[in-house]
């Protein structure tokens, strides 16, 4: 044990350098949303303006991708909440042959490179003659959203004493009452956290979406297309700020929810 | 009088594992019934068959004369105190206790009043607002008890409820549980692997071994007249003498159980002689293991009697009446 709690200087410098490396580019993106120069990203910006926010607001081509992204993120989150929770409940409550293998298969999509998921889904859709639509994007996103919810729910189930469900039944509650009064309150914050993470992941997903979207574009894909065109470039940065906020806030909330949950949820045992 | 709980040739097999295998038993209403056995002997599975969390794979279970194979756990007038208490972590103590009334749709006022009455019964007045996490093990145990009693069950099932408590608290809770059972007059079915607990609390004891009942009887019958070698050994670690040894001591040529506290160490008139191979100090006395021809014999010497040194040769004696002839070895 060291007598003072200060870390060595080299660690401090290293940590600061690492943080700057990670976060300065993000700050630059924010900065260029306010630049007066619309064609190049020269440094330092020749001047600062807030006009691009108004321009972005009035650009008609931004709204359909934004709407599509929100819709896909919301729907895939709902789908993931239902399917992920059911999977987690099945895995947590019963032991059966092949349980570990199935558990691995559920988690696999998030470990698999997005490009593999995308390619396999695309070829599956074409073999089955399913035309590309919002639903195909949704299915692509659900593959990894389910994993997020599943992981959160499984961790919470593991901390809960298995017999509280039996205790509830024993005291006369039916299945619905047990779910409503015992399972949901104990699972709630884990599901909220999983749902928010899933929403954030889906909202900025690019790779799987490019393989499953067909003619439509979600907001991240719209941005990718926009970057190659040297017209009103700062608008892209304005949209980037919107994406940043819509994904960062849920992730932050999810972080606090699961952190607080670990102190209370398993306490009754 | 119809029995509170009746097992008619009940089996519960998990694949090739015979957790419960052809059990017959009848628990009279108002008794304190203990299911005693080592882990894996089927006693907890029997309890879960009564609560309805397990279904028999053979035979029939009757609760107050009624076949309950199709009755789910939430419709049985039977409640359980779980081994890990299974309190709801997100509810305070009052809501935990009132849960059984809440799911029945009893209004908040009434169920909270009733919960307070039960908390008073288990001596936890004033703890209603606490969360289970803020209670000690003994207090959680009482909450679990109060919660299981709120629906006024006719049979209360207790799954090793004292297992997690320290010795002092366990003894206090044994007395309290016994007093509570006598006061409420309802049937308690109590699962334990602790033979002392079963003998001191129960009116009737069923000793389980490998999914079957080795013996049912009152605590003194179980202790003094064990039917099998297993019961003799599991309850009170009795000596079991082989048929040949028994015959040489004038008993019928059958396996015989001999309680360690019935054996004396003597200089004159010994039935058998042997060498002291182990000494175990037990506080209330000392257990002496003597290697005699034909097998080891344990002797319990009460406090105050002279303890022989290890390695010394001693003579052992006991009364004829101390030898109990068993049905099987």
Kindly describe this structure.
The complex is a heterodimer of chains A (269) and B (329). Chain A has 269 residues and is mainly α. Helices cover 74% and strands 0% of the residues of chain A. Chain A starts with 8 loop residues before the first helix and ends in a 5-residue tail after the last helix. By secondary structure, chain B is α+β, with helices and mostly antiparallel strands. Chain B is built from 9 helices and 18 strands. In chain B, the strands form 4 sheets. Chain B has a 6-stranded mixed beta sheet, with helices on both faces. Chain B has a 5-stranded antiparallel beta sheet with strand order 13-17-14-15-16, with no helix packed on it. In chain B, strands 2-1-4-5 form a 4-stranded antiparallel beta sheet, with helices on one face. Chain B starts with a strand and ends with a strand. The model of chain B has no long low-confidence stretch (mean pLDDT 91). Chain A binds chain B through residues 160-161, 163-164, 166-174, 177, 181-182, 185-186, 264-269, and chain B through 51, 53, 72-75, 78-80, 82-90, 99-100, 102-104, 131-133, 147-148, 150-151.
Give the gist of this structure:
Chain A is mainly alpha-helical. Chain A has helices spanning 9-32, 51-58, 63-93, 99-111, 114-127, 134-159, 163-170, 175-203, 207-212, 219-227, 233-264. Chain A has a single domain (60-258), classed as MetI-like (MetI-like fold), CATH 1.10.3720.10.
């Amino acid at each position: 044990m060291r007598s003072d709690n200060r870390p060595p200087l080299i660690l401090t410098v290293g940590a600061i350098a690492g943080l700057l490396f990670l976060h300065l580019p993000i700050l630059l993106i924010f900065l260029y949303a306010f630049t007066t120069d619309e064609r190049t990203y020269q440094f330092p910006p020749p001047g600062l303006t807030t006009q691009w926010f108004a321009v972005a607001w009035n650009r008609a081509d931004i709204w359909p991708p934004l709407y599509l992204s929100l819709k896909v993120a919301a729907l895939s989150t709902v789908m993931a909440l239902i399917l992920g929770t059911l999977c987690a409940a099945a895995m947590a409550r019963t032991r059966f042959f092949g349980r570990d293998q199935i558990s691995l298969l559920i988690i696999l999509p998030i470990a698999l490179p997005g490009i593999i998921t995308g390619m396999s889904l695309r070829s599956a859709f074409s073999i089955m003659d399913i035309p590309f639509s919002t639903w195909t994007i949704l299915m692509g996103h659900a593959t990894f959203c389910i994993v997020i919810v599943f992981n959160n729910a499984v961790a919470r189930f593991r901390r809960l004493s298995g017999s509280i469900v039996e205790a509830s039944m024993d005291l006369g509650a039916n299945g619905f009452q047990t779910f409503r009064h015992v399972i949901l309150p104990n699972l709630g914050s884990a599901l909220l956290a999983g749902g928010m993470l899933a929403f954030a992941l889906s909202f900025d997903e690019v790779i799987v979406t490019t393989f499953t979207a067909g003619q439509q574009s979600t907001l991240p894909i719209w941005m990718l297309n926009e970057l190659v065109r040297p017209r009103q470039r700062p608008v892209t940065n304005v949209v980037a700020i919107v994406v940043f906020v819509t994904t960062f806030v849920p992730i932050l909330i999810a972080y606090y929810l699961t952190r607080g949950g670990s102190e209370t949820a398993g306490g009754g045992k | 009088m119809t029995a509170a709980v009746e097992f008619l040739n009940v089996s519960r097999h998990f694949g090739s594992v015979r957790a419960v295998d052809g059990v017959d038993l009848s628990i009279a209403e108002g008794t304190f019934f203990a299911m005693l056995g080592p882990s894996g002997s089927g006693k907890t599975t029997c309890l879960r068959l009564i609560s309805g969390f397990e279904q028999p794979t053979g035979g029939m279970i009757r609760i107050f004369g009624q076949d309950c194979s199709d009755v789910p756990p939430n419709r049985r007038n039977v409640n359980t105190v779980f081994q890990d208490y299974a309190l709801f972590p997100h509810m305070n103590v009052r809501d935990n206790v009132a849960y059984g009334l809440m799911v029945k749709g009893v209004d908040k006022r009434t169920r909270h009043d009733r919960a307070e009455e039960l908390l008073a019964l288990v001596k936890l007045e004033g703890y209603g607002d606490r969360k289970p996490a803020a209670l000690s093990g003994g207090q959680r145990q009482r909450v679990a008890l109060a919660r299981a009693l709120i629906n006024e069950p006719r049979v209360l099932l207790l799954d090793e409820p004292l297992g997690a408590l320290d010795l002092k608290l366990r003894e206090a809770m044994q007395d309290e549980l016994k007093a509570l059972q006598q006061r409420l007059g309802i049937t308690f079915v109590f699962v334990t692997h602790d033979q002392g607990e079963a003998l001191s609390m129960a009116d009737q004891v069923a000793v389980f071994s490998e999914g079957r009942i080795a013996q049912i009887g009152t605590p003194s019958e179980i202790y003094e007249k064990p039917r099998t070698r297993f019961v003799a050994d599991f309850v009170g670690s009795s000596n079991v003498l082989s048929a040949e040894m028994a015959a040489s001591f004038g008993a019928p040529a059958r396996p015989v159980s001999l309680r360690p506290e019935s054996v004396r160490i003597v200089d004159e008139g010994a039935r058998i002689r042997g060498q002291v191979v182990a000494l175990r100090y037990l506080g209330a006395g000392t257990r002496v293991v003597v290697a005699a021809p034909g097998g080891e014999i344990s002797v319990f010497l009460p406090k105050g009697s002279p303890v022989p040194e290890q390695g010394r040769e001693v003579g052992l004696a006991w009364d004829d009446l101390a030898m109990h002839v068993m049905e099987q070895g």
